[in-house]
Amino acid sequence: MRTRLTAIALMGLTAFGGLAAVQPSHAQSVTIGNSDQQIARALSGQGYSDIVITKRGFTITTLEACRRGDKFQIKMNILGQIKSNRKIGSCGNRFAARDAEAAMKKAGYTDITASVRGEQVVAMGCRENRQFELTFNLRGDLINRDRQGRCGLDALRPREVRASLRERGYNRIKFIDNELPRYVAEACQDTARVELVINRRGKINRERRIGNCRGPVDPNNIAPVLRQQGYDRVEAVQTRRAPYMVRACKEGERQEIIVSRFGEALSNTKIGECGQPIDPNNLAAAVEKLGYQRVNVLRGNRTPYLVEACKGRDLLELTIGRFGDVKEERVGSCARPLNEADARAKLAEAGYFLPTLERRNNGSWNVEACKATTKVSLRINRFGEFARENKIGSCQSATAYDVLSTLEARGASGVTMYVEGCFRNRTYRWSFDRLGNRTGRERLGGSC
């Protein structure tokens, strides 16, 4: 607990003989003001190190820290602002692992191992057949002591050694040699990759740096980490907590991958194949092959592509990835497929007449019709949209003169042409001679 740690931190190595009397407290405490981590970050950013909290109040935290060889007493408010900064002495040499080993040996500990971890020195040792973990700051102040178990037991098994190493801050542990009388393992500590030689009781006899380790990855940036490992088309499935789950492509395979918090692929399972990138110039055709109709490309110059299309009666907005991954969002409804009566009505409304229609298998229509005096062929899709109109001939009809002359040639006399229609909401009949001149008008009555 932080209250206990603060009290212990006041005990310097000058009184190290009293080390054995320090016992862990099991009482609960409440942290007032900023947390230790917040205070450490705030002061570290201003060049301070070896930070020790000496007193906590409701609004002011008092602490000691070193900067450029000088030791300061600092008072910080709950907003993380330094209210006073008073030099109270100088800071000596930084406390090292060998200093912790020497001090513990002097206090009666055996089987001692110690290492520097960030701004602390953590050491393990045995005394009175009990194993303890002691934590010092870099000024040599003892800030914590925890009992770990008993010493002098039988040899630890690899899983027990792994657990012990994890408790000491190591991770990504891989055994190179797990046969007694010793163990050899590689592990990460912070950003350093180290080789460890461990005795049968879990004591680290030798530690050697052999490389670097990647720190924890931001789950929102897993994709770049996996791309460095040869994956592409990375899609996050679960990134709330580690291990994470993603889907990605590698060597033509679509895989489901379990990823550690350090960005390492722990396992992968093939779930399908990965296709070739979509040609943006053929985007509409590629979407139609997926079963969509009435495809309208809204954005085809960059990924993700944006397309509007129909599927059944639904109008969908499609977000399409570079390799054809599709996400649908319904944005409306599409008109029902056209029947023949609908098609004829559409043609008449657009000024076509004398149509002949042939239904195609996909629900569209091939049409030949007249438009003014031109005969055309065209296609109507299943949603009533016209396309592919081509001139194929003329639609010349007989004139009034031709019609009347033909009747007279067949023996008719006094031939007149009549036309009935509406004019100003009334029904009329007009008469015309063979030259198209109007010869009369008769109101028939009734409204149109």
Automatic annotation (TrEMBL):
Signal peptide: 1-20
Keyword entries, A-Z: Signal
Name of protein: Uncharacterized protein
Domain of life (superkingdom): Bacteria
Keyword Signal: yes
Signal in keyword set: yes
